[in-house]
Amino acid sequence: MTQEKWGLLCQKLLKTVGQNNFTTWIEPLEFQALEDGVAVFTVPTNFMGNYVSQNFSDLILYELNNAGEPARRLAFRVAANLPARPAQTAKPAAIPAAASEMSPRRFAEISEPLDGLQAAPLDPRFTFDSFVVGKPNELAHAAARRVSEGGPVTFNPLVLYGGVGLGKTHLMHAIAWELKAKCPELNVLYLSAEQFMYRFVQALRERRMMDFKHLFRSVDVLMVDDVQFIAGKDSTQEEFFHTFNALVDQNKQIIISADRAPGEIKDLEDRVKSRLQCGLVVDLHPTDYELRLGILQTKVQMYRTTYPDLVIADGVLEFLAHRISTNVRVLEGALTRLFAFASLVGREIDMELTQDCLADVLRASERKITVEEIQRKVSDYYNIRLSDIIGPKRLRSYARPRQVAMYLCKQLTSRSLPEIGRRFGGRDHTTVMYGVKRIEELKLTDGQIAEDVEMLRRALEA
Ligand code: ADP
Ligand code: MG
Predict the structure, then answer these.
(1) Residue whose CA is closest, atom 5 of ligand 1?
(2) Looking at the record, which segments are called Domain I, interacts with DnaA modulators (predicted)?
């Protein structure tokens, strides 16, 4: 496709999206190439690329195909030669100007509220009652309880972070429910960082930043879920930062969740990071066996109200708690499937049915043992330093444990001999092969070695 043709297409896009949208979003796109069904554009910022891709890609694809250009997908590259900064600062700078252009009268004419500035819907299942507390989440739970009392703000913000499916959203909703019940006069706003961005962009587009700022600064409790989403989205981060500061200044509670510690979120501005770190930062650890079992038992109790004659054989829940990964969502999914399956076929839930019904889940969550883990366990077991297992020393007291570790790596991981060698201080694969052989022989003749290997294997597979 030629630049001219893109120019013509732009005329059509202008008609559909209107002058404002066109100037803000479409005009800055620079058409680069159309290859293998992918139309590539350069954009001034990532933020723009994301926004256009979310909001206008169907339309652009439609127009491209209509014009006989077979495009399946759009790709946006941030123009490397364009200085990114000026482009980004240019936009926020334009807003105050736009806002100040609004006379009070014009402001009043816009009577329709900003679309969807109500809070995101809360899941009725996500309450404190249904949240099972265990060692891995007790701190996060206690902190969530504290802010849900709605008393004086003691830590601001509260940041809950942890991996996928560990209960961050559940706790956030639980806080919101509790606050709504206990302090109905408080204006509690829960939303995801993504929704924050869309509302911000919508306000920009409709030139209603004053409304946006006013509304966000009038909440009493602001809860933003999955804040890592705004990383790399510069104007959104900036707006978030200002909203955040305005609320903290007014001593309003802010609650944030993220999938990792604030300091570890890539492309999050330092000033945002340090703001987040000012409050109380607590993490949800991966679940342990006891917590998983507790959650399963609670869920079974809940299912009992729907399926009163549900029968679960002894050991099934323990098996699941043992075998299924740390992610609670996966655990719940497995249980739901199990119940559905059992009630369909009208059978008791026993080990056999469980294994059949959940074969894929069980396979997927088989624990992957790493070389590092093996090296660590082995060095602990023989009471030597990790560096001695990996390092060059040839002393017997290091060489034997090293061979045991190599043997276990061969047995318990899918690493090849050269790969294993590399992780043992860059040793040759023949050295690893020799080590593995040696242990295989010793296992037959030396009871102690056989026992060591067995103990270690069990510890690693636990
Ligand atoms: P995250 O937001 O951390 O990815 P969610 O809060 O969405 O995780 O939790 C995933 C699922 O697991 C939800 O259905 C939630 O109710 C459930 N869940 C997580 N932790 C617990 C817990 N401690 N007790 C009960 N249910 C939990
Ligand atoms: Mg979540």
Answers:
(1) 167
(2) 1-87
